Amino acid sequence: PVAAISPLTKGGRGDDKEQYWQQWQTLEHTCRQTLNATIAPISSLFEGKAAWLLSQYLPAQTPLMIANSMPVRDVAYFWQTGDRHIQPYFNRGANGIDGTLSTALGLAHHNQPTVLLTGDLAFLHDTNGLLNCPKLQGHLTIIVINNKGGGIFEMLPIAQFEPPFEEFFATPQQVDLHHLCNAYGVEYIAIANWEQFSTLISTLPQQGVRLLELKCDRLADQQQRQVLLG
Questions:
Q1: What digits encode the pLDDT tens for the residues 4-47?
Q2: CATH 3.40.50.1820 is right for the domain spanning 47-229
Q3: Out of 66, 97, 177, 206, which could bridge 122 as a Cys pair, Cβ 3.0 to 4.6 Å?
Q4: pTM to 2 decimals?
């Protein structure tokens, strides 16, 4: 990152603005090429690659609800530019994960097929929203990044202290999402590889709700972000 940005620090305020803008564009292109070349061969279910693939395979104009914590950050880090014109939505508030699923269901109602990208805790925080599934006129694909806890806290200094980190900050959970889907009559699909994932997101159903679960490794994925982003 330092090597990439250093050219921008040369010169004073009198530098030509157009030249400065061109430098940013060139560096952005270089960084994206490097990131693409690094992330493409990753075969493990790395959280960030889900966002990377969504930007490339979702049908044009798809409404995309993005949960808070790591999903929205991974979209910011790894989303690729293009001409698909995906429609992003997300909530903010005193507690950003409140009502994530319910908001996504509302977006999908009487709309084109919609996608929700969420972590496990944000999803579980609003599972009562699944009670509205029978009323949905439209389709929602729920993509759950299940790393069994709060991945965002792996980025904080408190992660070095165990205990109490895992119990009180990561707050791990052991919910079986397949059983949960069965209870609500929601279609469940466990993602085994990226080829399967890409196929499922490239063509969305027109009606109903389905859940795609990606079982990820919270600690390994944070280490992977550090490698990719510096």
A1: 556 655 655 556 788 888 998 999 899 999 999 999 999 999 99
A2: no
A3: 97
A4: 0.89
